[in-house]
From TrEMBL:
Residues 4-235 form the ABC transporter domain. CDD domains: ABC_NrtD_SsuB_transporters. This is ABC transporter ATP-binding protein. Keywords: ATP-binding, Nucleotide-binding, Transport. One of its GO terms (molecular function) is ATP hydrolysis activity. InterPro entries: AAA+_ATPase, ABC_transporter-like_ATP-bd, ABC_transporter-like_CS, ABC_transporter_ATP-bind, P-loop_NTPase. It comes from Bacillus aquiflavi. Pfam families: ABC_tran. SMART domains: AAA (SM00382).
Length: 266
């Protein structure tokens, strides 16, 4: 059985006047240790899908299974990393990275030492007593990753975590996050608008079509690219070829999207 299974996911947002279907008939599976990206035009339901997988919202129809259990039963197994770091500015870096462990009653000498070792791995040693406003944006995102990994989640959700960073910092963090997750054997789901980012970091890419969002195509990254760092992947001929293919598919989806109405009145 696959590590993560989605079966027949439908989701509709209701108001008094309208019903907007965000996702329609989404079925997919993700294997343990796999890095998967969700890519697609605005309005294709990427973030809604991630929220359903995380158990933050319940789908209108369908099921999500993680290691053979419903997502509601899979407590303390999912970590979330967002576009903003959401560090508490009045807490030190040490207090921020240990917060999740405290809230889940997992804080002890062993888990604390593990969190400190993650800081060192991220080249963030000697910042424990500092506050978030004393760090750069890239450093704060690394702290956010440490906070997420400190709870040792089995599944990591990445919702456009690099989009607010400058390009050079973004490329460096892509490499750092990729190598860190691979070294720990973590399963990761990335939501992104960036075709290059999806190709450089992923094992597979799920391209979603919009209104309602459904799986349009699945792209499997060539094996020889999977073993390379994201920065190195961008210099490969196969990267450029796959980029053009996905770009053309996205253009088709964007054109179709312009012809569709956003919602239906009830």
């Amino acid at each position: 059985m696959s590590f993560l299974i989605l079966r027949d996911i439908h989701h509709t947002y209701f108001t008094k006047a309208t019903a907007t279907t965000a996702l329609y008939d989404v079925s997919l599976h993700v294997e343990e240790g796999e890095f998967v990206s969700f890519l697609g035009p605005s309005g294709c339901g990427k973030t809604t899908l991630l929220s359903i997988i995380a158990g933050l919202i319940s789908p209108t129809e369908g099921t999500v299974m993680l290691e053979g259990k419903s997502i509601k039963e899979a407590t303390n197994t999912i970590g979330y990393m967002l576009q903003q770091d959401y560090l508490f500015p009045w807490k030190t870096i040490e207090e921020n990275i240990l917060l999740g462990l405290k809230l889940t009653n997992q804080l002890n000498d062993s888990t604390k030492n593990y969190a400190y070792s993650l800081l060192k791995k991220m080249n963030l040693q000697d910042v424990e007593s500092q506050f978030p406003n004393q760090l750069s944006g890239g450093m704060r995102q690394r702290v956010a990753l440490v906070r997420t990994l400190a709870n040792n989640p089995k599944l990591l959700m990445l919702d456009e975590p690099f989009s607010a960073l400058d390009y050079q910092t973004k490329l460096k963090l892509e490499d750092l996050v990729f190598t860190t997750l691979k070294s720990f054997g973590k399963t990761a789901l990335l939501v992104t608008h960036d075709i290059g980012e999806a190709i450089a970091m992923s094992d597979r890419i799920f391209l979603l079509s919009p209104k309602p969002g459904t799986v349009h195509k699945i792209f499997t990254i060539p094996n020889h690219l999977k073993s390379l760092s994201p920065f190195t992947v961008r210099n490969e001929e196969a990267y450029a070829h796959l980029f053009q293919i996905i770009w053309k598919e996205l253009e088709i989806l964007e054109q179709q999207n312009e012809c569709r109405t956003p919602s239906s009145t009830i």
